[in-house]
Amino acid sequence: MSCPDCFRGSVHEGEPRGQVTHAYGRETYVVEPANGQPAKGIVVILPDAFGWSFANVRLLADQYADKGGFKVYAPDFMDGRAAPLYMLESMKILSSSAGIFSKIYHVGRALGGVLPFIIYNWPSRAWPRVKGFFEQLRKEEGASLPVGAAGFCWGGKQVILLGHGDTIDGRPLIDAGFTGHPSLLTLPSDIEKLKLPVSFAMAEHDEYLSVEKAESIRAIVEAKPEGARGEVTIYPETGHGFCVRADQKFPQSVKQADDALEQCIKWFNAHFSSASQSS
Q1: Burial 204-214 (b: 16+ CB within 10 A, else e)
Q2: What is the CATH number of the domain that holds 141?
């Protein structure tokens, strides 16, 4: 199951600069590199529980486009059934010193938000939606451009499934993956099945993936052959969700999220370059 921290965090300020369009069968937020620069490759964001319309996800997509020079897609893989944003408020109250009646109310409110999300978006149910999008992308734009997948919390599981190496027209659906604090993993089998390179940004204080589990993932991915070899970075003093929902009031939290962003961009730049050279 996902952990309570999957539904905690802050909403970031800013105005996303991309556009909403229909791409590869899904409503999708898309943003191009700034100043009309040609894209180095395509990065598809697989979001946390709050889905494709969450401001934090769209602002992160903008940063990938601006700092990485990628064309970025954030599709609605959840068909409008993302966790509602009021969950952030309810989880904050449940961890506060609020009165018992307030907490009872917010327990019911939280369950009303999380259960439909989990039922509809359980990994095995969501996977065909994700796979179908990437199959179409690879056939079209992805035929000439490298493709990466960046997933957070809920989306991290889908990145791992993509990393298992499903193909279309003899090519893998992605060239490389990145995940920040993934959830819903089956360990160690999900990691052992990886056939493509995946970079992990892990939190030191993660109720779902402890440091010990993160280190076990590191041992597996770093021992894989070169074409599938991954990496793991553990960020000190961070919690689950820090890549997407860090509290911007705290400079250290912002820095850790920025460092994970740079990890992702560096990873895709390296693997997109390799994919371009081999094509």
Answers
A1: eebebbeeebb
A2: 3.40.50.1820
